[in-house]
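Limitations

Structures in this collection are predictions, not experimental determinations, and the ligand pose is part of the prediction. Treat each record accordingly. The example that follows, with shikimate-3-phosphate as the small molecule, is included so readers can see exactly what is and is not provided: the inputs are given verbatim, and the output is the predicted complex.
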Amino acid sequence: MSVHSTPIPMIAHKSGPLAGVAEVPGDKSISHRALILGALSVGETHITGLLEGEDVIDTAKAMRAFGATVTRVAEGDWRVNGVGVGGFAEPTQVIDCGNSGTGVRLIMGAMATTPIAATFTGDASLNKRPMGRITDPLALFGARAVGRAGGRLPLTLVGAVDPVPVRYTLPMPSAQVKSAVLLAGLNAPGETVVIEPEPTRDHTERMLRGFGAEIDVTDSAEGRVITLKGQPDLTGQSVAVPRDPSSAAFPVCAAILVPGSEITVPGVSRNPTRDGLYITLIEMGADIAFENPRDEGGEPVADLRVKYSPALKGVTTPAERAASMIDEFPILSVVAAMAQGTTVMQGVKELRVKESDRIDAMARGLEACGVTLEETEDTLTIHGTGAVPGGAVCESRLDHRIAMSFLVLGLVADQPVAVDDGAPIATSFPVFEPLMAGLGARIERTAP
Ligand code: S3P
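Predicted complex:
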């Protein structure tokens, strides 16, 4: 269980040039999926480069609770002996997914068409997040959920006894919802179809195909139509997890902003459904080169060479790009504050239901640091002046990406920037502190 009872206050100071190689951890989305699909396969899945952050460890524990054998062999090197599609056993304990929306939502999908019951809970952040977006489509398969008001956790899900396949159009751009429906469709007879009007990250589709499912993806006037043939025999695979572009975003943006920096971030996923921040940074004038492009484990990857970029300018990120950079808006808002001119982030209302309301968390913290901005329900506008006064303590609100974003701001603000709690960083980027220190960043823990 990843409930942080002891906050870890942290502070970041203006830093000299950042230099070196930043080996960021494995991709969080792919790590969750590798464990879950390994558990739903027959035979052994061998995962290398698994992210050993708290979110993913909670998913590993959950897969054990549903009957899979999950073993850590060495750092990042894990083996899963699965139970096959429809083979999940009923857990004897409550499943605690900690801080992880991805973990709980994908696991609910994976069990929804097996006739077992499970009760899910999480930390104070996860238990505030909406689950109706998952339990509504799962009900179409025949699963039943009883949770707190608004479909919040703790919640008990009773899987369908005689599942039926589903055709479902995503009401919001969410890879978690899409993935939950596809994972539920695995144990339903016939074809389950998900239509996504706006494309979202496609790791589930890629990995399902790799594990032996029949899955067809076509573009239509309604959007992307994903058709999964139910009840496949999934077989264990080798999965090499690429490094996480969402974690890479923090050292990359720090290097762009800190004068004189030059860093390399090797082996980062360049999946086009995750690339929005990098497209945006280049539009702003960032100096990023994508070297040695290659394919690793069904995902495109490259080595990023990033240099200090002195002439950054404000841009508008269109709504149709939002899904491909949904986790990167907090750090983009820091870059925007340090750029010259106005940056408008459009179509970002999904940020309001992440680990925190990320628009509100960034807006309040940036204002406290002296940044001028405006927000609406669905947009965040930052007026960059090329410098940020800083000198504030910002709330991280149990949100790893908010904590890391403000700490990167502290490396370039005129005065240090503190966060009230850096503990959530361990959910996705457990080596953030030593990695940033190794590049030359001055980030410290302070007394509570
Ligand atoms: C994720 C999907 C996104 C993202 C999250 C990881 C996934 O959430 O914010 O960090 O692995 O499918 P939504 O599906 O809610 O957009």
